[in-house]
Amino acid sequence: MPHAMKPEDGIAWVTGASSGIGLAVAIELARRGWRVAATARRADELALIAREQGQGGVAGRIMAFAGDVTDRAGMAALVARIESEAGPIALAFLNAGGFFLDDATVGGDGFRKTFDLNVIGTANCLEPLVSRMRERGRGQIAFNASIAGYGGLPRDPAYCASKSALIVLAESIRTPLARDGVLTQVVCPGFVKTPLTDRNTSNMPFLMGVEAAAKRICDGFAAGGFEIAFPRRMAWLAKAINMLPYPLYFAITGKAAAKR
C-alpha cells in the first residue's frame, strides 16, 4: 500500500477552507509543518484565513487560492496554478461541502445543489489531482464524508445520499490508485461544532469542537488508514444499526427522527 505523505513530499491542499473543519484542518496541518494551499469560493472568505494564521502561530504557511469546486474547468486550472506557484500537491483534503434545504422531499433545487457541491464538486477536484499524482507515483487524497453516509436517515435524504456516494467513491478508487502509489482515505465525522451544524435545530449527540476534530483528522492522515471516523462510539453505533434487518433499522431511525 502507498505510504502517507509528509511535509517534505510537497504541499497540502484543503478545499472549503474558509471556515469550520476545512479552516481548522488547514491550521492544524500548518502547525505540523505543512505548507497549505487553502481554497474557498470568494477572496473575502479567504481573508479569515490570514487572520486565523496569526492567531494560530502559523503565519506564512497557509496560502489562499480562491476557487469554486463546482466549476470543473476552474478546478483543473486552479490545481495547475497551485502546483506552478506553490509546488506539487502531496496531500489533498477535499472538504468543500454542505447541504441546502428544499421544500420538496427529494429532487428539488436543494437536493440538486447538495449533490452538485458534495459529489460533483469533489469529482471536479479529483480529476486533475489523480492525473498529476499518478505521473509522480505518489500522493494522498482524502474525502470529507460523514457518519450520516453510512445509511439513509429520515429528513436528510440529500445529505445522507451525497455523503454515502463519497464513501463508495473512495472505496471504488482506493485499489486502482494504490497500484499507482496514491493513497485514498475517507473522513467520516459525527457532529462537529461548525457554522454548518449551527444551523441544525435537532439533537446532536457526541458534539465535539472543531479543533479536536481537526487533530483527529490530521492524526488519521499521518496514520494512513482508509477510514478516519470519529467519535468512535457514534461511528460503531451507526455501523451496528446499519447491519440490522430493515424492519429493525427503519424502526430505530424512525424513532430517532420523531425525537428530532
What do these coordinates show?
This protein is an alpha/beta fold. The protein has one domain (7-259): Rossmann fold, CATH 3.40.50.720. 49% of the residues lie in helices and 14% in strands. The protein has eight helices and seven strands; from the N terminus they run βαβαβαβαβαβαβαα. It has helices at residues 20-31, 43-56, 72-85, 109-136, 157-178, 210-223, 232-241, 246-259; strands at residues 11-15, 36-39, 62-64, 89-94, 139-144, 182-189, 227-230. The chain has a seven-stranded parallel sheet with strand order 3-2-1-4-5-6-7, sandwiched between helices. Helix 2 links the parallel strand 2 and strand 3. The termini are far apart.
Task: Name a few traits of the molecule.
Rossmann fold, seven-stranded parallel β-sheet, 7 strands, 260 residues, alpha/beta, 14% strand
| Helix share, percent | 40-55%
Mean pLDDT rating = 90
Spans of at least 5 consecutive residues with low confidence = none
Per CATH, the superfamily is NAD(P)-binding Rossmann-like Domain
Structural class: alpha/beta
The level-1 CATH class: Alpha Beta
Q: Please report the number of helical segments.
A: 8
CATH topology: Rossmann fold
**How much of the polypeptide forms β-strand, as a percent range?**
5-15%
Distance between the termini: 42 Å
How many structural domains are formed by the residues?
Answer: 1
